[in-house]
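Sample entry (294 residues):
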Amino acid sequence: MQNAGPPLWDDLRVLLALHRHRSFLAAGRALGVSTSTAARRIDALEAALGRPLVRRGNGGTSVEPDALDLVALAEQMESGIHAIRRDKGEEALSGTVRVSLSDEIVRPVTQLLCELRRLYPALQLEILSETRLVDLARREADIAMRSSKSSSPVVVHRAVGRASFGLYAAPSYVERRLRGGRLRTAEFERHDFVGYEGMMGPTTKMTWLAAHGAKRFVLRSNSHHALLEAALQGQGIALMSETAVRSMGLVRLEVDAELPSLPIYIAYHRELRKVPRVRLVLDTLDAAVRDALR
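Predicted structure, serialized as tokens:
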């Protein structure tokens, strides 16, 4: 069958919605079109490309494995369109800025950005709390705070300091297991710890704990807030950044080992450096983080 040309966005967005929602009915609802319209779009796309793209069955609808490259293309186009919409026709300090953060710092940064919005009420914010590193090169976010650098040449990194870590426990745990709040590394193996799990598992913090003898992880999570709550409940000792636990009621333990630290970068796409609203958020974060990490 003759190829009718490159796939159109209207067809690809239906394929992307099918991949996400697993049925023509749900995909149509997500896009605001009828089920029959969604089906016709896929039929047209399959006819244009001369191959099946979607597997239809009683158990639902799925995209064929060899069509996932088109799904990836659709995701890139979607990100680009959203980025253009955020940039187009907006006044200097109005419009949306999307910021990606680890959940360890999402609360204080959100407080800071809310203060900024009081000064600039036309500014709109999208705050993403994620365990993965967003792809700034593809404009999945405008700004990200992270402890590692992207290899992409279009991503700019500002080094704003280093995050220092400490060992923390609830007063109830200290009273029960650590009179005086002193912990020797030789005692790590007999103490309870809480630590990261899953995608967050092989972090600097977990590596440091394991290297110093920590074995009994009574609770693991990919959420900082879950680990913080577990530590507050006296479940075990947590290795956390000083800024993340400040004023939370945990006791910092004395330990006979050098504690780890990590570099902190504010990263953004280089094309955004002259967008006023992005520059405003960048400079605000830069000043606040440098001050907090002193």
